[in-house]
Structure formats: C-alpha cells, structure tokens
Design goal:
mainly alpha, two-stranded antiparallel ribbon, 17 helices, 48% helix
Length: 400
C-alpha cells in the first residue's frame, strides 16, 4: 500500500477505501526510532480516521492530529524527549526520514465485514478520557431510525417514573434497556443462545431503518408493556424482593433495577393486553412475591449470570406459566387471595399466625390457605390466615 505518512500521498488515499482501521507500528531502527515513528504515525493515522468517520459531537472519540503540517508539534515522547515541542520542519533530516520511512501494518475492515468485528474495532479505538459504554458505542456505529426511536422512548414518562428519573439517562443506560427488550422480544427466549451484547448489536444492525409502520408497532409494544408493569408494580417494577430469614423474617426490596427481572417481566407482559392485566394486577403482584419467596431456582437465576441461555429460558417460562394461571384462572376459585383481604387482615392484626411475631410490612405478609389449596382448600376468607412469607415458605406442604 502507499506510504500513508508521506504528505503528498496522504490526502489522495485518505479514508476512501477504509471503514475502520486498526494499525500497529513496527519498530524499524531501534527503540528511539520506533518510539518516535510510532508516536508520529499514530497521530497521523488517527487524523485520517477522525476525518473518515462522521462522529456525533461529544460521543465518538478518536485521537486527532494535524498530519505533518507546519503547526504540528511533537508531544508525549518518552524516548528522545528533547524533541518534544518541535515541529517536523525543525527536526534534522535523518529524524525526518525515520518518520517518513516508518512502516505501518494495517488491517482493512470493509463495510461488508461482520458487524461484531466492526463493533469490536470501534471499542478498541475508544480511547477517550471518558470511555464510552456499549450503548454509546452503538449510538455511534448503528445510526438510523431505530436508534432514533430508542432516544424517543427513553423520554416516555411512565418509563422515567419506573427508573426514578426526571430526564433520560445521560449515559444512555435507559436506551440499552429498551433495546434489550426489543431484541429479546423479536428473538424470543426459545431461540436465545446467550451473549446479550451480540444479540443487541445484531438487532440494531439488521433493523437499522425500519418502516413507519414498524416503528409505530415497536413504540406501541414498548409503551403498552411499560404501562402494564407500572400498573402492577408501581415504583417496585423490575426490583428484586428478598424474603426474610430465621433471624429477620421481614423481607426487603432492592432499590436498583434488576436486568434479569427487566428481561423476564417486561418480555412476558408484552404477550398480554391491558384488559388482561389491569383486573388482575393485585393477584399478579402477589404471584410475583410468591415466586421470589418460594422458587429458589428463579431467585438464584435473578441474582447471578442472568444472561445465560438456560437461565433466560427458565425465568421466562416459569413466570409465563404463573401469569397464564392468574390471567386464565376461573374467577370463582382463584389460587391467590386478593390484596384487599390481605390489607384487611394486616390492619386487624399484623401478627404471623405461624411464628407469632409481628409482621413489619404489608409486602412481607402473605395470606395463606389454612387448608392447603392443593388439598382442595378454597380461596375464601374463612380459609385465610396472615403469615410471614418466610414462615409460609418454611411450612411447605406441612400443617402448621
């Protein structure tokens, strides 16, 4: 290839044949020559890169230089540091030749290259003072109408309310949540094979500029699902509930939004209509607390390595089965008691009927069947008693 450092040739070959470039310099004349040539060459190469790519201001960062123009000064040399501050024209002829003769090894990655390769290259070039996160990189690499939709939806007020924000996240964490939802919904948990990062990259790469009709469908899908989550869980949507222990029977809610629960709950809500969810909101809320208390596998899969395929599948199928049971259960004989009954029992006497200790919060209480549901016990006030969730879990199938 032509010498990219030669001033006369530089502009002719500038950037037209490259989409992304990784360059690594080879030392040609000892440590001093290598250090000097590498430093100068890197600045010139990144100068080409900065002109080749169209970067949103303040988002996509590459090192910038001024080539071999007269105002270019050497900086940051650790070897031959006496040359720092000098222009190219002020160097002696031998040193100028070392710079002009420095050899570049260049890997050319073309437009048709695999999108994951291009994304990785962009990560390698992300050398700014404040390193960009994955979603900020996607915002640079995958420009288009889909990306614009993510920005628009990040301003949806119920979504901001769930996050506890008054404005979109400054580092685009909210846009990544939206993209996670769309990517999993399109792929489904049945075809997810792991590596959510690549799944999200592929979602933006392959659907970069959807039609107006598709954009409208995506917006309706997201806002409807968010509305249902907010109706059922309020400010506790997508937060993990930790049941009590022997030492401390009262459970607690985590304040931080949980990615695994975001994937599971919002993904499942997307299969229903508001008319399915709103009349059953209290029962769905209680079903979730029951699952977090009694399903040890689900609880474990929420805590660690949540993006593994088998865990995504287990969570989705487990919660979908519970949702179907609630939404499709006969109204005459539901499995879970109403929240209204629980409030009444709690206000009458917030004492656990198993351990006889006071229950500190409504969410940590559970209305239990005196005669087990699976033994034919009915879900009626006469067969109800108030317990700690923890105590009811330890009861299991025993009489107590």
């Amino acid at each position: 290839m032509p010498d990219v450092l030669a001033p006369k040739e530089r502009e002719h070959h500038e950037g037209k044949q490259l989409d992304l470039v990784l360059a690594e310099f080879r030392e040609v004349r000892g440590e001093a020559a290598g250090q000097l040539g590498q430093d100068i060459g890197r600045r010139v190469l990144f100068s080409r890169l900065s002109r080749t790519f169209s970067s949103p201001p303040g988002k996509c960062r590459v090192l910038r230089g001024n080539g071999l123009r007269k105002d270019f000064r050497l900086t940051g040399l650790q070897v031959l540091d006496e040359l720092n501050g000098k222009r190219f024209s002020e160097l002696d002829v031998d040193t100028q030749n070392l710079i002009l003769q420095a050899t570049l090894r260049v890997i050319v990655i073309k437009a048709e290259s695999h999108p994951d390769v291009k994304f990785e290259v962009f990560e390698r070039l992300n050398l700014g003072a404040e390193k960009l996160n994955d979603q900020e990189l996607r915002n640079c690499v995958y420009r288009g109408r889909y990306n614009n939709l993510l920005a628009k939806l990040s301003e949806y007020k119920p979504f901001l309310q769930i996050q506890g924000l008054s404005a979109p996240h400054t580092r685009m964490a909210d846009r990544q949540l939206i993209l996670r939802f769309f990517a999993l919904h399109r792929l489904t948990h049945l075809h997810y094979r792991g590596n959510m990062k690549q799944v999200m990259n592929r979602e933006l790469e392959e659907h970069r500029d959807p039609s107006d009709a598709t954009l409208k469908q995506l917006e309706e899908l997201f806002t409807r699902s968010i509305d249902m989550a907010l109706t059922v869980f309020g400010k506790r949507a997508f937060r993990r509930f930790q049941p009590g222990t022997v030492q401390k029977p009262d459970g607690t809610w985590e304040e931080r939004l949980n990615f695994a629960l975001w994937d599971t709950l919002l993904y499942t809500f997307s299969f229903y209509q508001k008319s399915d969810i709103v009349p059953n909101a209290d029962r769905i809320y209680e079903e979730f607390l029951d699952m977090m208390t009694h399903d040890a596998v689900f609880s474990e899969y929420v805590v660690s390595t949540g993006d593994k395929a088998e865990r995504v599948k287990y969570r989705a199928e487990t919660w979908k089965q519970r949702m179907d049971a609630v939404v499709g259960a006969p109204r005459s004989d539901p499995r879970t008691f109403s929240k209204k009954l629980k409030v009444e029992l709690f206000e009458q006497d917030p004492t656990c009927t198993i351990c006889n200790q006071q229950i500190q919060s409504l969410d940590d209480s559970e209305v239990d069947h005196v005669v087990h549901y699976w033994r034919g016990g009915q879900t009626v006030p006469e067969n109800a008693r108030l317990t700690h969730r923890y105590c009811n879990r330890t009861r299991g199938g025993r009489d107590a």
